[in-house]
């Protein structure tokens, strides 16, 4: 059949707020023109993030009723550990309350001031945790990723030649580990090929540098490999995931993405001495190592969700949904990152708003216009989130000015996305009216979460 249906049926509904334009304008102004500061009740279609916003399955809800809330060594922990090990085969596994907790433990125990961490694309919390301890986060995206509109596959790859140059220049002493993010959220949700991961691993092994996978969307990445990398069309998503993790020395994971859960994550590694450091800091800040800040019911939900994310029918539907929206927007002339990513549509805000410069924060303007037009909440991935500062304090623009519309898992139907397409089309037609913005209040780290803006 031509129509790819949702591989589930709905057993419970939640009312959506249907709002008026005047109320949306008032709410946005009260939030300092930062959609992060809006009450969720003011949002009709919430595409701010796919992190922890998905709908759990009946199997997950049933598993939660079996949650063992024992403080240490619970049955839920054993099920969680068994599932994570079945997928990753890592020796040491530590649950955490979410992915950024795993990143913080990794950075705090392995990095010192002046260290360097290369990545195909550090996302916001990864970069912030690295910089918080005085290290530097360096992105080495593939050259193909610079062309936002090419249909080249695996644009999320790391630039292996650039990695070799960096290692030759800085050496093992300055680079305690390298990361690779699957899929590459910073670069438009683009996947990483197994071939690229193998080549990265060979270069790192020559220099004795460990590889850490940021595995938030490992199952979506596995689906891309199955669909588009030669030799994997008949391989199960589970086996592809196992091959991906076999190339790594450790991983951080937000289970709020491909764990299909509303909270949770893990940190994993093979090195015994690393594990001692991880365990000691986890006990200090997260909890006992067999619960890591999570309730037993959460461990149960993640154990089920990780396997559900590797079901081919689910991934086929999810990717088809993103591609459906992407094709409709391309047909209307809206500039988006191509090919479609695994979890989101990424609008090119710079091309969307050619009358604005990077210092005008076109992504903020576009995000606000989408909310005012139709109550759709998206997020800026441009110079507010990824911009840096020169030594004199001047703003340095991000490489791209993007706006991400992240699709919560198993939440919205085709009619919801048809509505989103209409909203984007309306904003695109009136794009010349999108104003510039200035920051009037910001935090030193992760400023996009709490900054306040003023339209000019």
UniProtKB/TrEMBL annotation:
Domain of life according to the entry: Bacteria
Cofactor(s) the protein requires to work: pyridoxal 5'-phosphate
Pfam families: Beta_elim_lyase (PF01212)
InterPro entries recorded: ArAA_b-elim_lyase/Thr_aldolase, Beta-eliminating_lyase, PyrdxlP-dep_Trfase, PyrdxlP-dep_Trfase_major, PyrdxlP-dep_Trfase_small
This protein's UniProt keywords: Lyase, Pyridoxal phosphate
N-terminal signal peptide: none
Homology family: Belongs to the beta-eliminating lyase family.
Protein name per UniProt: Tryptophanase
Organism: Methylocystis echinoides
């Amino acid at each position: 059949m031509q129509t790819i249906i949702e591989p589930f049926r709905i057993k419970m509904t939640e009312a959506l707020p249907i709002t008026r334009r005047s109320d949306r304008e008032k709410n946005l102004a009260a939030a300092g023109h930062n959609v992060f500061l809006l009450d969720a009740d003011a949002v009709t279609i919430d595409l701010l993030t796919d992190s922890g916003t998905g709908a759990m399955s009946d199997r997950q809800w049933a598993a939660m009723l079996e949650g063992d809330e024992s403080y240490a060594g619970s049955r839920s922990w054993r099920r969680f550990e068994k599932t994570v090990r079945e997928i990753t085969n890592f020796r040491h596994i530590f649950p955490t309350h979410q992915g950024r907790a795993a990143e913080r433990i990794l950075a705090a125990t392995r990095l010192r001031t002046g260290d360097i961490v290369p990545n195909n694309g550090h996302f916001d919390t990864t970069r912030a945790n690295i910089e918080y301890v005085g290290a530097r986060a360096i992105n080495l995206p593939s050259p193909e990723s610079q062309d936002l509109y090419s249909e080249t596959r695996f644009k999320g790859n790391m630039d292996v030649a650039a990695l070799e140059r960096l290692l030759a220049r800085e050496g093992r002493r300055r680079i305690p580990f390298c990361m690779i993010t699957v899929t590459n959220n910073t670069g438009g949700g683009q996947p990483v090929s197994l071939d690229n991961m193998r080549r990265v691993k060979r270069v790192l092994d020559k220099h004795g540098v460990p590889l850490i996978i940021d595995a938030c969307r490992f199952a979506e990445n596995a689906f891309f490999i199955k669909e588009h990398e030669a030799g994997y069309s008949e391989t199960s998503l589970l086996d592809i995931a196992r091959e991906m993790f076999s190339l790594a020395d450790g991983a951080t994971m937000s289970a709020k993405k491909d764990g299909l859960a509303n909270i949770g994550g893990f940190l994993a590694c093979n090195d015994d001495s690393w594990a001692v450091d991880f365990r000691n800091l986890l006990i200090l800040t997260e909890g006992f190592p067999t619960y890591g800040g999570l309730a037993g019911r959460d461990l149960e939900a993640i154990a089920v969700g990780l396997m559900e994310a590797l079901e081919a029918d689910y991934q086929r539907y999810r990717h088809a949904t993103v591609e459906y929206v992407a094709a409709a927007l391309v047909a209307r002339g809206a500039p988006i990152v191509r090919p479609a990513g695994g979890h989101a549509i990424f609008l090119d805000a710079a091309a969307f708003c050619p009358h604005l410069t990077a210092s005008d924060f076109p992504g903020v303007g576009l995000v606000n216009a989408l909310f005012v037009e139709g109550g759709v909440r998206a997020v800026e991935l441009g110079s507010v989130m990824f911009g840096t500062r020169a030594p004199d304090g001047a703003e340095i623009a991000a490489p791209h000015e993007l706006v991400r519309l992240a699709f919560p898992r198993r939440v919205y139907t085709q009619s919801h996305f048809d509505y989103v397409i209409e909203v984007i089309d309306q904003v695109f037609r009136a794009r010349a009216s999108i104003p510039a913005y200035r920051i009037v209040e910001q935090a030193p780290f992760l400023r996009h979460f709490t900054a306040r803006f003023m339209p000019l």
